[in-house]
Amino acid sequence: MGIAAKDAAFHLATASTAQKNKALAIIADELEANSEVILAANAKDIELGREAGLTDALLDRLLLNEERLTGIANDVRNVISLNDPVGSEIDSKVLENGMALSRRRVPLGVVGVIYEARPNVTIDIAALCLKTGNASILRGGKETFFSNMELVKVIQSALEKAELPAASVQYIEKPDRELVAQLLKLDEYVDMIIPRGGAGLHKMCQENSTIPVIIGGFGISHIFIDESADLERSLNVVENSKVQRPSACNALDTLLVHKAVAEEFLPKLVERLNGKVALVSDASAKPLVANAADVRDAQEGDFDTEWLSYTLGVKVVADVKEAIDHMRVHNASHSDAIMTNSLQNSELFINSVGSAAVYVNASTRFTDGAQFGLGAEVAVSTQKLHARGPMGLEELTSYKWVGKADYLIRS
Length: 411
Prior knowledge:
globular, about 400 residues
C-alpha cells in the first residue's frame, strides 16, 4: 500500500486542478446516487454498535442519514470551489545576484490518517487530499467498517472515471492493530500521520510513529463568563456550545463563571438547561446549581474530561486570571471562549490562552473547516508546529524553494 500510495502521489502532484475537481464532482454525485447502499451499510454499523454497547455520543458520531450524506456531498462540492493552493507562490524576491527566488506550494506526498467512529472523515480526507495532490492511506475504526467500505468504493470509482490512480485513496480493511503499527513505521513512503480520535489514539501514534504526527482533536473546551458580559446573550452561547452537537470535539466541556455574576447567571443557566444537560459542579458553584434536575459533585479528573455528551462541568472563579489559570492546568488546547464587554479582559484572554482557536463572545462550535471557509477539514490540530486549528487545503501542503536566473554561478 505504501509503494502504491507513493506512486499515486507522484501522479497527483502534477494533475491539473480541472482533473482533480472532476474527480471531486464525481465523488459528490456518486455519494448521492448511492445513498441507499451507503445508508444500508451504515445501519449495519449502527446495529452492531448498539449491540457492542457504544455510547450515544459515539453512535451519533457514527450515524449517517440522508441529511448528513447530502451535507457531506455538498462539502465536497465546496472544496471544488476553493482555490487550489498547489503551485501558488507564498512569497518571492530578487536577490542582489539577480536570482529570482520564491517559495512554491507543493503537496506533502502521502498522508496516513487513523480515525475512529466518523464515516464522514473518510470523505473529508479524500476530498482535501485529492484537491492538494496528496495520496492517502486511511484506517477507520471497526465501528465504521461497513460504511467505510461503501464510501471507499465510491471514491475509487470516481478516481478511475477521472483518470487518476485508484490508489490515490486506499483503506486498510483489516481491523488488526498490527497493521496500524506497520503504517506508523512506513516513513519511506508516508510523509505525515494524522490521528483523529481520543487522547489514547494520539498518544499511541506519538509514541510509536517514525513519521511526523499532527496532534489534534482532543482538548477540554471552556467558556468563561466575565463580570462585564451580557448575561442573557451569554446563555444563548453557552447553550449552543453545549447542546448543538455535544459529541463534537469543539462542544463545551467546562463553564467558568466570574463570582460577581455567578449568583445571577447560574440559576438562569439551570433553568435553561434543565432536562437537557447533567451538571458536574465544583464546590464553588454547588449552592447556585442545587436546583438542577441532574447535578453531582465534581470528582478528581472531571475537569480533565472531554464529555462528548450532555454533561457540563461548572466552576465559579474570582476573575479572568483565575479562569486562565484553571484552563492552563486542565488542557485548554482546542476551542475556548470568553463572554465579555471588556476589551482589556478579552485581549488578556486571547493572549494568555494556549488554544488553537480562541473566541470572544462566540460559540466554541465554530472551530470547523467549513465554518472557517476552508471547506471540509482533515483534522483540528492542537499542536504548535506546521498547522493549528482546522486543517484545510493549505495545511496539507509544504513548499519548495524555486530559484530562477540567467546561467548564474556562485562566486
